[in-house]
């Protein structure tokens, strides 16, 4: 599971050159819910705080789309059910 978070960070840093990046896993809070029926304590619910100069001139929706584009493999292949984003411009 740690590999997943290392890869997330690597891709986000390479794709968006953030000045600040924090990735939190809050899967345990959702253990047993429909998005985490097997009660996994890691890797299903992810919160990302990211500040990037690449967001300059983009709407909040465009900022989130930029992150979702990078995170797409994690949603489709790694079992991430929920992705919560907080984006900002430095």
Automatic annotation (TrEMBL):
GO biological process: iron-sulfur cluster assembly
SUPFAM superfamilies referenced in this protein's UniProt entry, alphabetically: BolA-like
Region (Disordered): 24-43
Coiled-coil stretches: none
InterPro entries found in the cross-reference section: BolA, BolA-like_sf
Family: Belongs to the BolA/IbaG family.
Protein name: BolA family transcriptional regulator
UniProt organism field: Leptospira saintgironsiae
Taxonomic lineage from the root: Bacteria, Pseudomonadati, Spirochaetota, Spirochaetia, Leptospirales
